[in-house]
Write a structure and sequence with these properties.
mainly beta; 6-stranded antiparallel beta sheet; about 5% helix; about 55% strand; Late embryogenesis abundant protein-related/LEA protein-related
Length: about 150
């Protein structure tokens, strides 16, 4: 059963990578629906929104549902949409810059640029995986994957 979607992301500042295994380590201090600060710096602030569910065996499952990135005066949101049924051919990722949705074309290798902000988005697969980069501030690879129990 699919209960939602989750994001796995990697960034070059400062050698931060969050994946499902590492979420378990953070999970002890979190409750469902909480936000957690991952990076706080003068030029960059990254928060993650965690979701979770208890299994019938009593194990807690925790995933990153979205991340928020603040750099300069800008706010970037990368989130996984909740869906009833996962389809690999559907893009389940929501990307917003300063609260405006960005539509990233579904062509692998396609790049979308915002010169005024210095932001580049690159499609790494036809759906559910992108690279988001601002030179000398961050380079994030985000993937949306299905949650199954």
């Amino acid at each position: 059963m699919i209960v939602g979607e989750s994001i796995t992301f990697h960034t070059l500042l400062p050698q931060l990578a969050i994946n499902q295994e590492q979420c378990v380590k953070i999970q002890d201090s979190l409750e469902k629906g909480m936000e957690f600060c991952l990076v706080s710096d003068v030029k960059l602030h990254i928060n993650a929104h965690f979701i979770g569910k208890k299994s019938k065996k009593g194990r807690d499952f925790t995933w990153v549902q979205s991340i928020g990135v603040m750099f300069g005066p800008h706010q970037l949101y990368i989130g996984a949409n909740q869906v009833a049924k996962w389809k690999e051919s559907m893009d389940n990722m929501l990307v917003q810059l300063d609260q405006e949705e960005i539509t990233v074309p579904n062509d692998k290798g396609r790049t979308w640029e915002f010169p005024k902000v210095g932001l580049r988005l690159k499609r790494l697969s036809e759906t559910n995986k992108i690279q988001i980069k601002v030179d000398e501030i961050f380079d994030i690879v985000a993937s949306v994957v299905p949650i199954t129990l």
